[in-house]
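Hey L., structure's done. Input below.
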Amino acid sequence: MSDRQYILFYKPYGVLCQFTDDSASPRPTLKEYIAIPDVYSVGRLDFDSEGLLLLTNDGQLKHRLIDPQFEHSRTYLVQVERVPNQEALQKLRDGVMIQGYQTKPARVKLLDIAPDLPLRQPPIRDRASIPTAWIELILTEGKNRQVRKMTAAVGFPTLRLVRVAIAHLHLENLKVGQWRELSDQELQELRLKVLPRRIR
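Output:
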């Protein structure tokens, strides 16, 4: 029997994407939600971001998912300050320069209505004089705080950031702070997408 673990987790806002925090004022970590040893997140979500994490002890699969040369998608719902115009959206699609790095082309669309997401705790600061909007952003890379830097670079700072999918894996049927194991079908499809035929 394989001892490999594959877990999907809905990371809440204000939780570190690791199992320990050695800082002077420790913050909540994954350990408070997941009592499974020796699994590690595939990529990261910032302390102030929410959404889908994949955790595993399968190092080969983890490498193939996070290495940008393999271009596996990550889907984010992003609430931004003000309403982006078409010029800003096109810049995000084409790639923007952040700290000397040109981001890869992305798929971007402005959402007509706010997505059906759980309320964030604490909620974002609401300023009646400044409208907000939601965009869907699909990337094939994951640089440090990349989404926030990208929206800021085109003039629309991120207020809330929720990752809703990694490749074909989605948040569906997970509540905030809840985790589950991948189904056999999900794992089989993930391995077909990610791993070369010789090592599946």
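The domain at 73-166 is CATH 3.30.70.1560 (Alpha-Beta Plaits). The longest helix spans residues 184-194.

-- N.
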